[in-house]
Amino acid sequence: MLLSPAPIDAPAERRNYRWVARRPDQRTRRSSTSGRARRSAETPRYTEMPRWGLSDPQVLPAAAPQRPLGAFAQRAEALLVATAVVFAVGCLAELGRYGILLRNRTRLVDPLLLTVSDYLVFISALLGLAVALAAALAMLGWLIEARRVAYERSGRRDPRSVRTLALGCLVPGVNLVWPGVFLTETVTVSAQDRPADARVLRAIRIWWCAWVFGAIVAVAALLWRTADSLQAKADGVMFTAFTDATAVGVALLTLWLMRMIEGRDLFGHTKIARRWVVAVDPRVPVIEPVHPGGAAEADRLDSVSSAERGAVDTGSTEDQDNDSSAVNREHEEVVAK
To answer: Does the pTM of the predicted model rise above 0.85?
Structure first.
C-alpha cells in the first residue's frame, strides 16, 4: 500500500484521498443511470458478510507424533490382565483334563465331556499364545515410550534405537537377557543426581528371575509333550497346568513392575511419597504424665499428721513438767517458812 503525500493531520478538504465503502457486487452490478451516481446519506450496509479484510484462519493443534507400537502401548495394562485371565482359564482346563484322566482309570467318561475338555484346552492354549504375543508387543511399545520420557528428563536422547529394543525383546533366547538391561537403564537414567529407587531395582530383579524361570518352564512343557508313555503324558498335563499358572504369575508381575516404574501400585493407585523431617528440638510432652498418687500420698499425709501429733504430745508433756516443778517449788517455800 502506497503512502499518501498529504500530511496525516491535514484537514479533510486538503486530503487527496477518501475512504469509500462499496457493495460486494459493485463490479457485476450495472448502474441504472448513465449519469453521475447520486450520493446516499444513509449508512452503507451489506447484504452479506464482506470478503475483504485480514483473514484470521483457525489455528489447529499440532498433531501428536506417531510413536512405534503406540496403539499397543495404550492397551498394555488391559492386554496383561487378559493374558493372566486366559492362562488362568487354561490352567483350570488342564486340571479338569487331569481329573478326567483319573476318573477314566475306573469308569467310562462321557464322550461329550471329553470333547468339551479337548476344545477348552485347545482354545485356551491358542488364545493364550495370541494374547501373550499382543501383550509382548504392547510392553515393547511401553518400554520405548518410557525410555524416551526418561532420557528427555535427563536432557539426553535414547542411545538405543527402536530396532535394537525390538530385537532384544522379541528374539527368543536373546529376550531372556536384554529386557532386564533395558528396564534397569530406564530407571537409572533419570536418577543422575540422586540414587535410584532401590525398591524399583529390586522389583526389576524379581521380575527378571520370574521371566527366565517362566521361559525355562515353557520349554520344559514343550519337551514333555514328546513323551510316549501314558503316565508321562498324564504328568505332562499336570506340568502344563503348572506352566499356565507360572504364566499368570509372570503377567501379574509384569503389570506390577510397569505400574511401579510409573509410580503406582498393583491396583493402579498413585503412591504418596513419604517425606521424613529431622527433629532438632527436644520432645516436649503435650500432656503432663500421670504420677501414681493414691497410697503414696496417703502415706505421706499420715506421716505428716503423725509428726504433728508427736510435736503436740511433746509440747503438752513439757507443759505438765513445768507445772509440776512450779508446784514443788511452791511447796518447798511454804515448808521453809
So the answer is: no
